Amino acid sequence: MVRDKVRIRFRKGGELRLVSHHDLMRCFERMLRRADLPFHSTEGFNPKPRLVFALSLALGIVGAEEVVELELDEELPLEEILEKLRHQAPSGLELFQIDRIDSKSTAQVHRVCYRVSIPPEKQSGLPERMAAILADHHCWVERARPTPRRLDVRGYIRDLNLQNNFLEMDLEVTPQGTARPDEILQLLELGELLTEGAILERSKLELLDKNLSTQANACC
Question: Is 164 left (phi over 0), alpha (psi -120 to 50) or beta?
Fold first, then answer.
């Protein structure tokens, strides 16, 4: 029986941004085992820790405020859980907050923000293109995966800003999906940025579920 459930905020950066979501899950599994925490396991012939990530992060993107939820068979002090995991975390993985949540609660992402550095020579005409997208009723993109289709992503775009040479993309997340940052860059005629080595950062991951347990406060 699950006795406790916690939500952990973490940053994935450095060389670890080149680790896939699947490998990140395996990394957390190893951390839990090495930390000797009483994690709750799945059933079956190959039991694994019950870990749920709020939203997967594409390969190569830095995650500044990522979320993972963990089920435990015992209730431990939040500080103890966080410190034990920090001691096992690899370089590039920073665990900075933990909350105790209701065992039936599940993280529901409703907003994400991405940011990317824009060289000055590529900023000419960019504010006008951003304004045109925000003023339009439709923004059609060609999405190849999981199946080729044409998709209107305008409803997912909350805002676009250019500040201090950084483009900020504020996007809605719904049960039907969301827009992808590379799609927004293509719409802004900046699709070559990523192939030229620009690094995307998911700077914010905002949850719809704010119903944290009153049994404990956040521990940072």
Answer: left
DSSP string across 110-168: EEEEEEEE--GGG-TTHHHHHHHHHH-S--EEEE-SSS-EEEE-GGGEEEEEEETTEEE
Determine if residue 70 is left, alpha or beta; phi over 0 gives left, psi from -120 to 50 gives alpha, anything else beta: beta
Longest dimension (CA), the chain: 59
C-alpha distances out from residue 147 to 44, 142, 143, 196, 213, Å: 32, 10, 8, 27, 40
Predicted TM-score of the model (pTM):
0.89
CATH at residue 72 = 3.30.70.580
- Whether 216 is in a domain gets the answer no
What phi-psi label fits residue 127: left (phi over 0), alpha (psi between -120 and 50 degrees) or beta? Answer: alpha
Structure tokens at 119: 């060289």
Q: What is the pLDDT of residues 69-116, one digit of tens each?
A: 999 999 999 999 999 999 999 999 999 999 999 988 889 999 999 999
Same domain, 180 and 191: yes
- Pairing state of beta strands 157-163 and 140-143? unpaired
Average pLDDT of the chain, as a whole number:
92
